[in-house]
Amino acid sequence: MKRRLFHFTSAIVMLCPLAFADDFINGSFEIDATTGFQSVNATGWVTNRTLGPPYLINNATYGNTPYGHQFLAIGGIEDGASSWIEQTVAGFSAGNTYLLTWAQSSEYIPSDELRSSFTSGSSTPGQIFTTAPYPGGNQFWYGWTNESMSFVANASSVTFHFQGVPGSGSYEVGVDNFHVSASNSTVPEPSSVLLLASAVLLVGGGIRRRFASSKAL
User: Fold this and answer.
1) Which domains does the chain have, with CATH numbers?
2) Helix/strand/coil for 207
3) Per residue in 107-139, pLDDT tens?
4) Are 74 and 172 in contact (CB under 8 A)?
5) Nearest-CA neighbor of 144 among 87, 106, 200?
6) Burial level of 191, CB count in 10 A (0-12/13-18/19+)?
7) Whole-number CA gyration radius for the chain
8) Which residues of the chain have pLDDT under 50?
9) How far from chain centre, in Å, is Cα 33?
10) pTM reported for the whole predicted model
11) How far is CA 112 from the centre of its chain?
């Protein structure tokens, strides 16, 4: 009886898989301290640099990121958008949908653009994200927008690639606060999990009572 109930419960739970993944290392660029504006290979990230960018920038010099005190500016007009950053994150389940989120800001007059794509681990097409120009004066990288992108993993590890858009006229787009999480379409709401657990207990109780009744007969 107990074995039958265990198998039944396991089958129900398997119908509702959770799809949690690891998260970015140094997704907010706070590990490598800077008090200014420096060309830095940020910890946890693979960096391609042909000239100055990417730059690690502290709010004390430019910008007003609300996610700590530092952010990264990826190359645009200064290096022809040839610089980029990448990071491989593990813990995915192939076939499940996940959500990539980050914050983005423009340096100057143009609307800066960032291309978010996948080097490996997902066949989801890359997308370009655009943020409004800076507010004026010396307020470079002021005003941050939250961006998001859903993707489907096809491996246990996914390599994320972030780069400016060549020929777009963008300056050095600011990025910060990278995270990856399970999509709401994959992970059930807590109320749904509670309802499922209650159903399992009710069905299990019914099976047990039926079993007890049959023994009494």
Assistant:
1) 1-16+189-217 (no CATH), 19-187 (2.60.120.200)
2) helix
3) 999 999 999 999 999 999 999 999 999 999 999
4) yes
5) 106
6) exposed
7) 24
8) 2, 4-18, 186-197, 199-204, 207, 211
9) 23
10) 0.79
11) 20
